[in-house]
Write the structure tokens for this entry.
Amino acid sequence: MLRALQQHCAHRNWRLFAAHVRSSHVHIVVAAEQAPERILLELKAYASRALSGPDSQDGSRKRWTRHGSTRYLWQPKHVAAAVEYVVHGQGEPMAAWYEG
């Protein structure tokens, strides 16, 4: 799923600062010209397709909560703090990536 998130961000020309895929949730820090809610919806859809695979008939499976936590990060120090939390504040790393 991490690769799918990276690909979608690249496709949309969004700047991916950090991503950490956990067994039950995902954290991501991204800069884009869209509202965070729109980014969240697109990433959920893209990740769902990646998880299901091209031959899956599993399109109706519920994978995500109805919403999720979205925040605007206006200052570089807030982005840096969010990246630190995503990469190092989640316990033992699973599938993680950050722009370093």
